[in-house]
Amino acid sequence: MPPVPYGWYAVLRSRELRPGRVVSLHYFGRALIAFRDASGRAAVRDAHCPHYGAHLGAGGKIVDGTVECPFHGWRFDADGACTLAPFAPRTPKVALGGFPVREHSGLIFAHVGPDDPAWEVPEIPEATSRAFARPIDDVCRSRIHIQEMRENIVDESHFHFIHGQSEPPVQDLRPDGPFAEVRGHFHRRVLAWDINNTFDVFMYGPGVMVVRVEGPILSLTAVALTTPVDERTSEMRMLYYIRKPTRMPFLAPLFKLVFRAEALGEVRDEVRIWDHKVHLVRPVLLPHEKGIRALRRWYAQFYPDGAETFDGAAAGSPDRDSCAIG
């Protein structure tokens, strides 16, 4: 598999990182911990103490805003620096590796890459708006690279077979540096309702996507968070924010119930397919399946220069299209 794409990834919801707690994580092929310092600032650092290798998330505790190793009491601050080493004549100049962190929209983001972040994930207003119900939170893991999870949104044909749409949606991908937008329209029947909605997809780098669906019956915002776990596994966390009906906000729980029954099963169908599919560098695409090629060209920017990307070319090299019928 190619290296982890550079960019921002959501590793926790803010509510999952309470003050005074050390949370163990495993992403990007690394054992990690998350904690808050005395001011409440979130930190994501490597999990193993450089002194003797103990896992700071297995018995470690927060002391004065630092994480204390359960084995020998060494302490590390939110920037990873060692602040205390009991019985040492002087504090060693060692540190825990880690990531730049941002927190907003109810999420904690970590940035992967060799340099300081050159762009930021915009705030997601639905996460704090009272016009939307509390989100449906759905997490799954699959044996697939996160790029293929992202390609799912521009795979027009699968909307018929997985999501019950009468025909592939018409889509238009518009790249803008590390951001991209896809606009489209879909029609399907849910129970006794004909759902005829528009959707706008906003992609913020390789790991964050916001899908806004607007319609006369149901409007919602889906936040898709895709994060590499290790060389073989990726995580997809979906947060579905359903807009409360203006005149009948009490119907929001019913809309959430119907959405759970209809949509989450379809996501599981996709995960089962992902677990067993293989990646094709040059898939045989039909003339209308232009979105996959366009997304692969846009996505290549998040790999290190010279790394082979999922379109079979090196990052930074001229575009090479996938095979197509037509």
What this model shows, in words?
- This protein is of the alpha+beta class.
- It has two domains: 106 residues, Rieske Iron-sulfur Protein; 151 residues, Naphthalene 1,2-dioxygenase Alpha Subunit, Chain A, domain 1.
- It contains four helices and 17 strands.
- A seven-stranded antiparallel β-sheet has the order 11-17-16-15-14-13-12. It has a four-stranded antiparallel β-sheet with strand order 5-6-7-8, with no helix packed on it. It has a three-stranded antiparallel β-sheet with strand order 1-10-9, with no helix packed on it.
- The longest helix has 25 residues.
- The protein is globular.
- The chain starts with 6 loop residues before the first strand and ends in a 27-residue tail after the last helix.
State the main characteristics.
single chain, alpha+beta, Rieske Iron-sulfur Protein, Naphthalene 1,2-dioxygenase Alpha Subunit, Chain A, domain 1, 2 domains, four-stranded antiparallel sheet, 13% helix
